[in-house]
Give the backbone structure.
Amino acid sequence: MDIGLFGGTFDPPHIGHINLARRFYAKSRSDLLIVMPANIPPHKASSATPAAMRLEMTRLACLSLGEEGINYTVSDYEINRSDKSYTYLTVKYLREKYRPEVINLCVGSDMLFSFDTWKCAEEILASCRIFSLAREEGEYDEMCRKAKYFNDNYGADVHIMKGSPVVASSTDIRNGGEMEKLTEKRVYEYIKSHGLYE
Ligand code: ATP
């Protein structure tokens, strides 16, 4: 079976994440989508929102994926590790657990552009198929150039997905952006009932 890995901080999860997950699942033809909230993301300051709350919000956000018939699970593997959430370690764990033929990995454009800085980036590029989606209009051509660079120089298999971006970011939401519009209803209700991001 082929698995699809979608990691993130999800602080909070928003409609851009759900759109990416949906498109990635369909395009990669993964048999199982694994949504993986990070414990301490390597490239970010550690999140102020407790991991258990990010995990719960991620579970709520993903319910709509299940309702659409997507075969997914939200994993607490990274959150239960006490160290940094390095994707190459998670990939190793998933390989042992599921023995997949292929591991597909999805990232937004910002992560594609900074992929060279990831720990063991070459190992990930050599062992996973990568799918990426623009976060803003006008990024597509640059993303294709980056994909070609990885494919030509690292024997990678990077695909850029087409389609209009869903512009949303957790930072904007935390900083007072249009939370109700940019989050799933169940996530919005959770945020409000727990007084998060006030
Ligand atoms: P923050 O604003 O806190 O940095 P974020 O909105 O980037 O958060 P993350 O949880 O860090 O959210 O993102 C997880 C993954 O989803 C990353 O690969 C990121 O590039 C991707 N992603 C986030 N938002 C979008 C979006 N609107 N469209 C496409 N991909 C996205």
